[in-house]
Amino acid sequence: MPREMGAGERNVVDVEQPLLEEEEKKKKSPALLYPNCPGCKHSYLQDPDAKLPYKIFGTLAALTLVSALPISSLYPFLYFMVRDFNIAKSDKDIGFYAGYVGSSFMVGRFLTSVQWGMVADKYGRVPVMIIGCITVIVFHTLFGASTNFWMAVLARFFLGGLNGMLGTIKAYASEVCSEKHQAISVSIVGTVWGLGLIIGPAMGGYLSQPAIKYPNLFPPGSLFDRYAYLLPSLCVTVISIPTLCITFYLPETIHKHDVKEVEQAEDSKYEKPLSLPIPNNLSRAGSRKYTVCESIESPSVHSPLGSLHEPKFEDAWNQHSEKGPQNSDQVQTRSSSLRSLSQNEEDMNDNDGYRALLGTDTPKDAQEEKIPGAETNLRDSTKKKKSLWTSKPLMASIALYCIWSLHDMAFSEIFSLWCVSPLADGGLGLSTTVVGQILAISGFTMLVFQILFFAPLVNWMGAVLVSRSGAGFTTLSMAAFPLMTMLKGTSLFIVLNLLSIVKNILGILIFTGSFILVNNSVRQDQRGAANGLAMSLVSLFKAVGPAGGGSIFAWAQSRQDTYILPGNQLVFFSLAVVSLITYFTTFEPFLPRSLDRPLPEDRDVE
Fold it and tell me: Which parts of the sequence are annotated with region: Disordered (predicted)?
């Protein structure tokens, strides 16, 4: 029968294994430390074994579509809309005024994308996406109902300036799934964006001027006869309203640790009366052991030579019992220090986004106070945030994104002009219907590729190599476009379709790859500002691309008989040069291969 322990007898307890198990539990369940933090509540989405969040992906797809449709739906009717404003003195001036209407959106986005990114980092991703949906509903509807030139320009400007949704969506897509599913989430954004660029022009072309195209449904004098371009905008609004409703149910991914909870957790650490250090003595088996006394005696150490008295351990015990008031004062000192940190945090939050961009250090008091635990638990609020402008990986990723956007926008402008230009001017002489069919076929193929093949390709090669391959093969494909003038009829249609399909697939590799690189180059608390900065700079390049491409195309039309790069050869040679520059920016040391994986949260931007 088991013998009862008498007073003064000791029981040897192995505490190493329980301590290790406790540490593992803390690592696996960090959300228990901050129950009121929305980021901690939904951190399970980033677990390696987490399943794909299909509902969240569906909402992200709807938000991306709402972002894409206002950009692309106006181009089919923009010429006629400006003409009806009666602001141009002649038909030749319509394109000039149409350029102002089209570029006003990008100007607004260029001026505010960084600020929206900082708002997303401070207040959360979901509020920014909600405001973006409301902006589309209000200002895109006003644009469709515009009755004069300046109303249209201002509506487009505010539509771009008050909508910071796209950059936030890109950051959010990499935060709602595990690392192995990141390529899938980002490719969904790129896929739906491409789908929006196909649906938008079709919507604008078929639904504008409905009283002229469908007089039986919209008789003269009706609402849509007076506002001939309102119907496409209302269709976008119909899609945006349910999207706005489901956006409220998206989980927030930004961590917001309540300083009061951290203070209570720190106080509880120092209020435990029996938290004693474990001596570094080992038993015969080599595992760490100490003696738990059943009676009130000073602790002793279990040794192969017998029970040995440990003076240092006994001193620690006595200090703990005799100097209780001092420990209490120490707890109050540490608590007051934590409270001072919370006050500093309120001041820091006001300029948190600018600190991310400019690299402002944390307050001096917060750096000098070396409080155990608080330094880790308040890391999100007191961590020094280096400047995004000085982050070489981030700026390299943004440079790749910007240079390729310049190429892509210039190519989109040039390709349509080249296809419909007369044969005598070096064009293909195709109709707008045929050009629309080519763009639709290549766009559909691009969507299929991105859904089925992009994610496995990125997981196998990495985002850097995928972007490099896309830029390299695009440079080679530019040499094939001028040769299309040698073909006619069905052969021209088939070969041009194949070439357009290849070009679109290669473009998707670089675009979506650059999204991943931007997100991987910063921590989560700076991801919104980083995507805002990227969207701001890219908007500038996208505004320059069409104007630059159109100018080069017009210049090339006037030099058909030169010996060096005549006509459209100059055009596609210029595009090849830009894609070649993109190719070189994907090599080290400019773009490190480490960006294939996200930046660890315990590391700062380089």
Answer: 1-27, 318-379
